[in-house]
Design goal:
The structure is a single chain. By secondary structure, the chain is mainly beta. It has 8 helices and 37 strands. The chain is globular and about 100 Å long. The protein starts with 19 loop residues before the first strand and ends with a strand.
Amino acid sequence: YTFPDFSQGDDYEPSGIYQVRKEVPAFADNLTKVIGPHTVKVGFFTQNTSNYQGGGQQMNGIFSFGGGGNTWLDPFLGYNIGSPNNPTANFVTGTVYGYGEANKSLNSDMAYQNTAAYLNDNWKVSRRVTVEIGARFEHVGHWYDRTGNGMAVFYANRVASDYYAGKAEPGFYWHAIDSGVPLSGFPNRLFFLSPRFGISYDVFGTGKTVVRGGWGAYRWADQYNDYAASLQTATNIQSYGLPGQRAVLEGEIGDINTALGQSLNLAPAGQAGSPGFVPGKQGISGGEEGANPTDYGMPLTYTWNLTIDQQLPWNSLFDIAYVGSSSSQMDDNGEESNGSNYAGFANQNKVPIGAFFQPDPATGNISDNPENLGTNTDGSSTHNNEADYHPYNIEYGANSVNMDSMSFASNYNALQASWTKRAGRFNFDFNFTWQKQLGDAAFQINPFYLQPNYGVLNVDRPFLFNSDYIYQFGNVLHSNAIADGLVNGWTISGITSWQQGGSLQQADGANFGLGLSYDASTIPSTVSGVGTGLGSNTYYGTDAGLAIMPQLTCNPKSGLKSNQILNMSCFIAPPVGQQGGQNFPFMANAAYWENDLGLYKTFNIHEQQNIQFRISAFNWLNHPLPEVSGGSQFQLSDSVNYVTRAITAVPLANSPDPGILNEKTGAPTQRILELNLKYSF
């Protein structure tokens, strides 16, 4: 493109100053008293964590001029305009293929409060047994709006009446318009009780063999990002976007801008006609989000461990432990469980399973063509529309209506072992972990039922080995001063790490991007209005993001070729209308390992002056890591016979080596030598 870019967000609106300020004022005090075998500690802690930042909404509007090989209809002129392949010409003539604008920019001022009183007793029961008992009485609140407006909540039973009363954002309320709604949206408990317990037992009374363990409950607040959308709803920010497959001239944008598009229906024919203002049908884009007004949940983590410490020869220590944790009451539309939000559960406006097989709520007609509801397979029109099947179609069209609840959970269990030595010339730390991390939002494939989404999280690495070591040569030569100075006093150190790869389903999709299409040659000539596209509309009668999972025909981890980590031919799409496998075996990605070495010595010159020479070798074994040339190596594609519904795997042209690590890492991960010379004075 040969013209300036117009996609820069309005990060300095509305005040002309970049808005960001993060403050964490805190106060704490402790009192410790020794009473015989008891060491008692009482204390108080309070902290307010705040986040003030601009929303970066596009108040001045953004433009795009590329047609992507197509020309689109101008609803004002009634015909297609612009050049399909010359965005420069579109820019010069003022032909806009994409436009977005927000009615205001939000400067959010949010915070959460954590206040606690705690009591802890370290009890020396005997010479060999020590017990630790404690508890925190704490208030941990949700993020709240410090401006007094409040975070939005959603009342499903008020949507219809609000809509016909003309209320903006029907069903959503916040403190400024309903004082019964707390500033945080979510209601808060006055306090939680969080107990902790620990014990240590010296098995033989020699201090060489110790068994210790503990259990504790911990409350915590989730991140700011998970609440910002609720504040945006309560601030009545609306974003207008020119609908797809439409184009306008720059001079026409002012007409669209009236009340953010309410005066003009830019949707395709047949999608209008609802009374009042329907955001999704008149250019207002994006959904609404609020909290569950009856959910008092606050993220809770239980942790536990049982450890055996054994002193070994060479002043070394061996440690083996079972470590676990379980977290619950996490936001079902937040990022805590798997690092990315999953709005499927929170969306109250998703199409129910099987709805597309039923009569359209608006027309009363049944379509036998779920992929194209407006047309039957005999070519007759049904006047059906996908948006009509959404529960709040009249009020919100097909836009999402999210009500966040604190319902997600995850867990961690691990066997951890380490052998360490921290004395003498040779020191080392070797540790090994066998672990599993599971959670409710792992696969994000089913927005209706929680269990199918449960699985291995993206941070899970089942086996890990890490080591570091250092050897000080000392004075190995006793000759003359020059020879001793050159040979003695060197130190060599290094690290070696290896970890099994993470889940392939996390890296390449839970269903490996399963693409389905009808075999065009099997569609009878008497059938019309049917394309080759095939998805959840036909399989499950919904467009709610219910993924089609493949089923297994063999063990995908057996019979592998060289550098192959998965047999992709073991996967096939399920019969139409059915769901494929759920509990697949763990399928690991490529392993990672690293080896680095360092050699250094400090040469004294005079008094406090010295020079240190160091040579470092990164990936000193020069071992490249296997990898794939692209994500299509683990992508599935199947073809469906329209008449018989028989399913056939289709090889991907851009995936010549399915399931095979067909490349190796190169620069900048090859062996690197680094020389350093440091003069200190």
